[in-house]
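Task card 7
Instruction: Convert sequence to structure tokens.
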Amino acid sequence: MNTSSQICAVILAAGKGTRMKSDLPKVAVQLNDKPLICHVVENLLKAGIQDIVVIVGYKKEEVISLCKPYKSLRFVEQKEQLGTGHALLCAEDTLKNFNGTLIVACGDVPMISTATFQSLIDYHIKNNYEATVLSADLENPHGYGRIVRNHSGALVEIVEEKDADEETRKIREINTGTYCFNSPAVFLNLKKIGKDNAQGEYYLPDLIRISGKSAEKSGAMKLLNSIESSGINSIEDLEKLSYYIKEGRIAV
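Output:
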């Protein structure tokens, strides 16, 4: 795998997590006695990625404190919650001298494995993509953005459920929220994102559509174990993932 200074990771960790019924930042919620964000950081580090930037926001001091054991991390504040696209754009100044592959991970999706991070980076580089999304097939894709492919199987766009029509909502392949992009080009494309959508936010998945308009190649790599894509948005999500771990359906 091509791991060196050419690989950098950005972890999105600015959210509040109102459905967790807790005052904690969402990424501070514990899974198997470890904060969600620590699972993500450790799996990235094990993948050989030493350059990691964490986007913080709600109760940023608590998140930064949780990350103290990991000496190489840098932190960037997202002062307004304007969407995932805006969150990544906040890192532009910090990464102004970085030229290489940028992996974007969610601080509340704790089970993306080291092997998956490595495979995603390799897939992105091998196919010479401008943007690569990690996808998964789910029995119940409710709430997730859908992966839209053309008749030949190539990625066309990602459509958020709130913006999807009835036919698109039948698609079971979903966006895990984990990506690879080329930097610094990704920041130029981020500035082309609008917020004409149901949430009124700047969506990171829109980069796929923008890449297509620019005739840039993008693709999607499907997870072998879809449980890795489990995001924590509620107490029920946390309990379900804890159960999967206990049953051995996913390794910690």
